[in-house]
UniProtKB/TrEMBL annotation:
Keywords: DNA-binding, Sigma factor, Transcription, Transcription regulation. It comes from the Bacteria. This is RNA polymerase sigma factor sigM. Residues 100-152 form the RNA polymerase sigma factor 70 region 4 type domain. Belongs to the sigma-70 factor family. ECF subfamily. Pfam families: Sigma70_r2 (PF04542), Sigma70_r4_2 (PF08281). The keyword Transcription regulation applies. The gene is sigM_2. Residues 6-73 form the RNA polymerase sigma-70 region domain. It comes from Anaerotruncus colihominis.
Length: 156
């Protein structure tokens, strides 16, 4: 498969996944471009142990984490100048605490629950495609996603 074909087929999957992670379409597009650049640079490391889309999403996640580290270093004093009001801080802390708890529960899930949930929620993949990624049926994916969701909800 040539790169143009690969890009056309996999761009929507990686873009949706990164949009789910960062919540910003413009940034997600930039990160998706960076993902494909890194994939080309490191194409020899793809060993076929997982689906190509999963490998690309992992590279995308690493791009997102690199972006966050860089943004954190650059923020410095700018963050102090833009401090929100006390009420906004309280609301933001509640939202952050809920998000933190959800992410902790998500990352504590064993595989394949964690990956199925991530692909369904963040990458917005349909059940049929997720099932194909794992060489399982669509019903297997639905049940696995439902159980992952239950396990996350149990801890909240």
């Amino acid at each position: 498969m040539d790169f143009d074909q690969l890009y056309k087929e996999q761009f929507p999957v990686v873009y949706r996944y990164l949009t789910g992670l960062c919540g910003n379409q413009v940034l997600a597009e930039e990160l998706t471009q960076e993902t494909f650049c890194r994939a080309i640079e490191h194409s020899a490391s793809f060993q076929g142990k997982c689906r190509l889309s999963v490998w690309l999403c992992q590279i995308g996640k690493n791009c997102w984490l690199s972006y966050l580290r860089k943004a954190k270093r650059q923020a410095g004093d700018e963050a102090l100048e833009q401090m929100p009001s006390p009420q906004n801080v309280k609301d933001d802390l509640l939202i952050q605490e809920n998000a933190r708890q959800i992410h902790q529960r998500l990352h504590a899930l064993p595989e394949p629950y964690r990956e199925v949930f991530t692909l369904r929620v963040f990458a917005e993949l349909p059940y049929t495609q997720i099932g194909e990624l794992f060489d399982k049926s669509e019903n297997w994916d639905r049940v696995t996603y439902y159980r992952a969701k239950q396990k996350i909800e149990e801890g909240l």
